[in-house]
Design brief:
binds aspartic acid; 433 residues; 23% strand; VC0802-like; 2 domains; alpha/beta; binds magnesium ion; single chain; 8-stranded mixed beta sheet; Carbamate kinase
Length: 433
């Protein structure tokens, strides 16, 4: 059995949706589960809608909702000439529900509101793709992921309730894909979404569809997971930033975890662990050249890859904290500092300390000032915004020179396999606090 995952780029328009059908046609002689995310950049679009609706900026919310609707209707009109097809009614109903949510009087917390609204990107994409596949004669069942991906209510980053999920997947999904009839009947479902014990929708964190594919593969003991992408496989750097990037043919699970941890936007960081636990290979392939081999990620003692791998994170802030009472950086201070970070949900990308100062590199965030104010109570705070965090795995001096170029290194950390550099552009007034 295989689990396929198609991300936004692979279903960004009518032509791509038809391409998904072509890929599936070649793969129906084996039991299959297909996980689909929202189309194109629709999750971003829904996030903007959530922001506006939550803040009761109804004019902006209405305009944004219209943009989202137009986007889906355009694709729908291209895929279905017959406007009396049931899918038009279904999509209309989904948009009625969306409009209902955006105008709710009581919106609860932002995170729970987000999880109520943003899953509609996936609900729309799977409804449209499923209808298109049905029209082309593909035997399958569209299953609502919220009925078998069970999570806690940590909205926007929900934790999977594994036992319940495994039971549900085996009760509800497995029977739909077993049997001897070929080509096999497959199951199509949404990535990224689940539901909590009260039946509220939840999401697994951005790019969570990869994780959904891994959860399903784990629960079903699948033979492999294939993630279909707009690149030939995992590249050693983001091709948009680094045109000379090359494909990595093979990678161990641990290397893939490390890469994801450092921020390589290749796969959702939680994806690998469930696969590694059951030794299920993960293959990352191009949906454009779907017969090419892609990147094969599996268990391996040896490190497969020796080419340097570059990971860039932009919009970074480097913060240095010095205790106001002039004490050294010690366990007590760190306990206090980490408490503030946890409370403000700030993730640390890199940290380093000296006797009297503790430095961290974090992603820039909207309510940054609030966070800094909390820190300023006990610490003198200096920070620089607009920096880059560059991580190089399998680095050598040349690879460092290549990326640093004319940039100024503000902080550097090396281990045997990895170097991390916080850099500023030469012209930045980077010493300002
Ligand atoms: N649609 C969601 C997102 O863009 C989940 C995913 O694509 O994996 O984050
Ligand atoms: Mg997506």
């Amino acid at each position: 059995m295989k689990v396929f995952k198609f991300g936004g780029a692979s279903i960004k328009d009518a032509v791509s949706v038809k391409n998904v059908a072509n890929i599936l046609r070649d793969n129906l002689y084996e039991p299959l589960v297909v996980v689909i995310s929202a189309m194109d950049k629709m999750t971003n679009a829904f996030e903007l809608l959530a922001d506006n609706a939550f803040a009761n900026r109804m004019k902006e919310a209405d305009e944004q909702l219209k943009r989202i609707k137009d986007f889906h209707l355009n694709i729908l009109n291209e895929l279905f000439q017959d406007t009396s097809h049931a899918i038009f009614k279904k999509v209309d109903l989904l948009f009625e529900e969306i409009a209902g949510i955006t105008t709710l009087k009581e919106k609860g917390s932002f995170d729970s509101f987000y999880d109520l609204l943003v899953p509609y990107g996936e609900l729309l994409s799977t409804s449209i793709t499923s209808a298109c596949l049905k029209k082309s004669g593909f035997e399958h069942t569209l299953a609502d992921a919220r009925t078998f991906i069970h999570t806690d209510n940590n909205y926007r980053n929900a934790g999977v309730k594994w036992e319940d999920t495994i039971t549900s997947v085996n009760q509800k999904i497995l029977p739909l894909i077993s049997g001897n009839n070929q080509p096999y009947h497959f199951v199509l479902s949404q990535g990224f979404i689940g539901s909590d014990p009260d039946g509220h929708s939840t999401t697994l964190g951005r790019e969570g569809s990869d994780y959904t594919a891994a959860i399903l593969a784990f629960a079903l003991n699948a033979d492999e997971v294939v993630i279909w992408k707009d690149v030939p496989g995992l590249m050693n750097a983001d091709p948009k930033i680094f045109p000379e990037s090359v494909k990595i043919d093979k990678l161990s699970y641990s290397d893939a975890i490390e890469l994801a941890y450092y921020g390589a936007k290749i796969i959702h960081p939680k994806t690998i662990k469930p696969l590694q636990n059951k030794d299920i290979p993960l293959i990352v392939k191009s949906f454009e050249n779907h017969t090419d081999t892609g990147t094969y990620i599996s268990e391996s003692e040896e490190r497969y890859e020796t080419v340097p791998q570059y990971i860039f994170k932009f919009n970074q802030i480097l913060i240095s904290l010095t205790p106001r009472d002039f004490s050294f950086i010690n366990e007590e201070n760190l306990f206090d500092i980490f408490g503030i970070f946890t409370k403000h949900r700030v993730h640390i990308n890199l940290m380093q300390n000296s006797a009297i100062s503790f430095s961290v590199c974090i992603d820039d965030k909207a309510d940054f000032e609030l966070f800094i104010t909390a820190l300023q109570k006990n610490y003198m705070v200096k920070y620089n915004r607009g920096l880059e965090l560059i991580t190089i795995r399998n680095y050598n001096e040349l690879s460092i020179e290549n990326v640093v170029n004319k940039r100024v290194i503000l902080l550097e950390q090396r281990s045997r396999a990895t170097v991390q550099l916080v850099t500023a552009s030469e012209n930045d007034n980077y010493l300002q606090g």
